[in-house]
Amino acid sequence: MSGVDSNTFQEINDRVDLLKYASQTIDMEKRGEDWWGRCPKHIDKTPSFSITPSKNYYYCFSCGRHGGIVKFLMDFEDLSYSQALKKAARLADMNENTLCRSEVYSFMVNMKNGLAKKIVPKHRILSQYDFYNSRYVRKSAKEWEEEGIPPEVQDLFEIRIDKRGNRIVYPVYDNDGHLINIKGRTRYPNYKELKIPKYVSYFRSGVVDYMQGMNITLPYIKEKNEIIIFESIKSVMKAYSWGYRNSASAEKHSLTDEQFKLVLSLRVNVVFAYDSDVDYRDRDSKVWKDIQKMKKFTNVYIIEDRGKLLGGKDAKNSPVDVSREVWEELYRNKRKIT
């Protein structure tokens, strides 16, 4: 049951009327095309929980929880992935015996429908089971708590622990909210001596045309009319916990062509907040070239460690690594590129 393929998983989500089900426990009121209510997971004086019936999708603008019926059951009824999937299947009036379709079965169906005629998808869409299975323990990383990222923020960004690989893991979503990869960061402090990579991808996800964490932060980016681009999801989470929720991670210190187009499509101001070892003045670097191109279309700002508040280039610190006070000073003094 827990190993259903992505097509069947989507079918379950599509067949359950999320608004009708959620309205049993949450008072919902229509505003425009969406319905709004108070999120059960926190004190919600002004309704911030929304459901878009056309997409059969919920989003809380306060805590960032989001998804379809399966995720709703996990978030608000505290069910495991397997339990939520089974309940959702019953709500969808689907026979459990028909749910264990293999990826081969799905491929054959697509072939029959003419959907696989030499079409190579951008990403392989994974089953939610690939992430919510028992291998990854749902708990916060203590070392990240010590660095200032609260457990509730780690939980919101779906941080898990891979005990077998001794890694902190987190999901990767594409721009449509599909799970496409799982990334892991080693917990060994001496990973270089052990010749262990700092980051690993558990699956091949193809072109990087997404921004890590934007599945949660996009509403805040639009509200603020600004995106802060960090190098890592950890920086995004730390900034988020300080109230700077309009950020996303490029997962490195330059943008792919696809990420560049994605950022421009947002039509917001852009703040580059790369680590202290990045030289924005190096005209041979892709960073400099990205900035020069982007400033033609939108306002671009950079955060530089001119006063060595981050320890200089050798420290290789993110602008949020030292303290909130240092971050706020750097952000306040960000320089506009003209």
Overview of this protein structure:
The chain has 338 residues and is of the alpha+beta class. The chain has three domains: 6-98, DNA Primase, Chain A (Alpha-Beta Complex), CATH 3.90.580; 129-201, DNA primase, catalytic core, N-terminal domain (DNA primase DNAg catalytic core, N-terminal domain, Alpha-Beta Complex), CATH 3.90.980; 214-336, Dna Topoisomerase Vi A Subunit, Chain: A, domain 2 (3-Layer(aba) Sandwich). It contains 13 helices and 15 strands. The protein has helices spanning 6-15, 18-22, 69-76, 81-91, 103-112, 129-132, 142-146, 151-156, 214-224, 233-241, 257-266, 286-294, 324-332, and strands at 29-31, 34-37, 49-52, 57-60, 66-67, 136-137, 160-162, 167-173, 179-186, 199-201, 226-230, 247-249, 269-272, 300-302, 335-336. The strands form three sheets. The protein has a five-stranded antiparallel beta sheet, with helices on one face. Strands 6-7-8-9-10 form a five-stranded antiparallel beta sheet. It has a five-stranded mixed beta sheet with strand order 12-11-13-14-15. Helix 1 crosses helix 4 (81-91) and helix 3 crosses helix 4. The model is unreliable at 101-112 and 114-120 (pLDDT under 50).
